[in-house]
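Appendix B, record 7
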Amino acid sequence: MPDAPESHLPLTPAVFHILLALADGDRHGYAIAKEVAERTDRTVRLGPGTLYGTLTRMVDAELIEEAAPSARKGSEDQRRRYYRLTRIGRQVAKAEARRLAALVAVARDKALLTDR
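Structure tokens (predicted):
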């Protein structure tokens, strides 16, 4: 029986950002790093060592898998490795989002997100 999604929690920020980047569809490494940087107003930057090391660990953990580039234009795109979420990867991302939302709710209750 596969692991429960919650058994993977808490996720590191890099893993969660990568899962979020792949939630919309397949991406190659550079596109993942670019989306993360843009989505976080450049406050989170995944360098090549962090990005590709994390992707390898995520493939090993079966959170993501390599996807065929499928008729992408240009020879450069044909050489790139594309990644996609697995079913368990999507479940883990949802579980982490719920965990973080619960923490934010506590912070709101404690008035930590207001100027009071």
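Remarks on this record: The chain has a mean pLDDT of 91. The chain has one domain: 9-109.
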